[in-house]
Amino acid sequence: MGFLRFILAVSVLIFHSHPIAGIKLVGGQIAVQSFFIISGFYMAFILTEKYVGNGSYKAFMKSRLVRLFPAYWAVIVLVAMFSLLHSYLLGGGLFLQSWMANWQSVNIFSKIYLLFTNVFIFGQDIVMFLQLHQPDGWLFFTSNFTQSQPQVHTFLLIPQAWSLSIELLFYCIAPLLVRQSSFVIVILISLSLLLRISLYSVGLNYDPWTYRFFPTELAFFMCGIISYRIYSKFKTHKFQHQNLLYLTLFVYALTILFPFMPGVIIKQWLYYIMIMVSIPFMFIYTQRSRADRLLGELSYPIYIAHVFVIVLIERIVLSTFLKKVLQGQQDWILNNFLGIAALFLTTWLAILLIKLLVEPIEAYRQSIAKRLLEKNLNSKQEI
After folding, report:
1. Cross-strand bridge partners of residue 141
2. Is 140 helix (H, G, I), strand (E, B) or coil?
3. 366 contact partners, CB below 8 Å, separation of at least 6
């Protein structure tokens, strides 16, 4: 499923930049919610088959945090450094602009919250439901974050990381949820969808209610758990290799050609159902593929870094350094090459993050785990 995760990450990148050769893939919202389904599947898989017994919850959370935070912190340092450098050399603070322009008007409690959520991710989804009150600088609830000036999400240095906050909330309760019966999981899915319909019926059918509200997004994670239950029933079944290949290719094609299919809402939800049903068999087909695994590992750093890269291309390269050379052709270049350039540069940055940061940390963590295991075995032998 690594290639599917890669395509979904590229879908979000394209959503924030421009189509590549006229291809938009599934778009930002559908990609993120599909990631939630995949996350539900993986969490159910590892909690059921890997993290079992005493201390498993602590080990599970530690593993998740180690996977998320190093790359996130590396990108946020890059964002802050380049924003400060841009402010010093060219004026304008890029991702720090709202901080610089509103530092005096935001009170200490709001600053603490915004600093905390930038560093530790938790609470970034809540930012989309907050408005900054002037002139006292308090944050308070709003049903429409676009009414705030400045909009509170502009204080986030990695604005797309709000979805990671929702992921972290799910991780906190995942060990409890995966132990529930399939009947209970279906009930939770139904309640989550019913809440979504209820919100839509009272007019809350716009961002952030459409895909940033955790209670309504929970249904997608639960669908991932159901997907794992399907996998557990068929994982020992002997499937014909070509049938799994055809299904995998069909899902890839559906993801790539999604914009060209008729319909809007119906095809969106049919796609979610297809992802939920297909994941078990795609996982069986691809789980031994090293190339597929490597592509999947790129998806997270691409997702974390792509907005930073897009802004660098748009505001620094095209708007500043090449402005005189381009002579008014920036818009044409943005429309035709921004997506390609963003994908190329973001992929290379993702590879660097993996090679220089993620892999060394993972190797160190595995070495510690191995030494602890050997120590425990030696202790038992002495007894």
Report:
1. 130
2. strand
3. none
Measured distance CA(209)–CA(364) in Å, rounded: 41
pLDDT of 18-37, one tens digit each? 888 888 999 999 999 999 99
CB atoms within 10 A of CB 93: 15
Domain limits for position 216: 2-375
Q: Count of domains in the chain?
A: 1
Tell me, yes or no, whether 381 lies in a domain.
no
Give the long-range contacts of residues 351-356, CB within 8 A, separation 24 or more.
351/298, 353/71, 353/74, 353/75, 353/301, 353/305, 354/297, 354/298, 354/301
Number of H helices, E strands in the chain: 15, 2
* pLDDT per residue as tens digits for the range 208-242: 999 899 999 999 999 999 999 999 999 888 888 89
What are the CA-CA distances from residue 93 to residues 81, 112, 146, 316 (Å)? 10, 20, 21, 12
Half-sphere exposure of 268 (CA within 13 A, CB side): 11
- Whether 76 is covered by a domain: the verdict is yes
